[in-house]
Amino acid sequence: MKLEVDQLVKRYGGTTALDSLTLRVADARVLALIGPSGGGKSTLLRVLGGLETPDSGTVMVNSRPLPAGEVGLIPYRRRNGFLFQQFNLFPHLTALENIALPLEKAHGLDRGAARDTASAALGRFGLSSHAHKLPAQLSGGQQQRVGIARAVAHQPEVLFLDEPTSALDPEMTAEVLELVQELAEAGQHIVLSTHEMGFAREVADEVAFIADGRVAEHAPPARFFNEPASPDSSRFLSRVMRW
Ligand SMILES: Nc1ncnc2c1ncn2[C@@H]1O[C@H](COP(=O)(O)OP(=O)(O)O)[C@@H](O)[C@H]1O
Ligand SMILES: [Mg+2]
Q1: 40: left (phi over 0), alpha (psi -120 to 50) or beta
Q2: The domain containing residue 14 runs over which residues?
Q3: Domain count, the chain
């Protein structure tokens, strides 16, 4: 995927979440956003995913400008996939229905085709045995895997993941990250925010370090983790990698 983000500003009342953020990614399959809490990662993901409109600045995804109004953003969102930290599934629907419903309502598949596609998506990730369970009957890791299966069932151009494992214990974190890695290896373009530095290092093609609403550093992971160039990223890494 190619990203051209220029001078992006997003304010919430008196808080400047994105402060003229600029980021150029020429050709990456997986871009990892890392950095301190409150730095602007989620806001950037929501803008890139078309869930939030910036106050100013421009965004081009794969050489096409992000649509400005709601009318253009609806098809844009449908073309992509999104997963948050938690609570991604409708609690009153089974895993299968959680995937089938949006395929039917947003993507126009008929009921049978939607269920077949949903079933195939669950199968692809080894989740078939959970098809008829409600989210409450699944572990957090299984819920996130179903959430990812839903986010990719319609073959999104870009998959946006906002700290998909931060609410999970280490074992569930591993099972979700393995799935994300599998998707990346299958060629899925992904932008994710994460605190899993080992994962970012292994799976990302590029890492953007975001703090105070700006990109403080942007580099391939080998360079970023071995010789961080900015004082902020080097301080951050020495703290989070210490334990
Ligand atoms: N919906 C919102 N309303 C008010 N302030 C927000 C909202 N979303 C984010 N912010 C603020 O914007 C800044 C960036 O937040 P966020 O994008 O969530 O950072 P990160 O994901 O890196 O932790 C923070 O100061 C946060 O409190
Ligand atoms: Mg966040």
Answers
A1: left
A2: 1-80+159-243
A3: 2
Q: Check pocket membership of 41 for ligand 1, CB cut-off 6 A.
A: yes
Q: Is the CB of 42 under 6 A from ligand 1?
A: yes
- Among candidate residues 101, 126, 155, the one where a domain is terminated: 155
User: What is the reported pLDDT for 207?
Assistant: 98
Q: Are residues 179 and 207 in the same domain?
A: yes
With a 6 A CB cut-off, is 142 part of the ligand 1 pocket? no
Any atom of ligand 1 within 6 Å of the Cβ of 84: no
My answer on whether 47 and 102 are in the same domain is no
From the CB of 37, is ligand 1 less than 6 Å away?
yes
Bridge partner residues of 160 (DSSP): 82, 191
Looking at the fold, whether 8 and 118 belong to one and the same domain comes out as: no
Per-residue pLDDT tens digits for 3-62: 999 999 999 999 999 999 999 999 999 999 999 999 999 999 999 999 999 999 999 999
* DSSP character at residue 129: G
Helices (H) and strands (E) in the chain — how many of each? 9, 10
β-sheet bridge partners, residue 60: 4, 65
Predicted pLDDT of residue 118: 98
pTM of the model: 0.96
Residue where a domain stops, chosen among 120, 155, 190: 155
Task: Assign residue 4 the CATH number of its domain.
Answer: 3.40.50.300
Atom of ligand 1 nearest to the CA of 13: 4
- State which residues have CB under 5 angstroms from ligand 2, the bound ion: 41-42
Contact status, residue 18 vs residue 211, Cβ threshold 8 Å = no
Q: What pLDDT, in 10s, does the model give residues 46-96?
A: 999 999 999 999 999 999 999 988 899 999 999 999 999 988 999 999 999
State whether 67 and 174 are in the same domain: yes
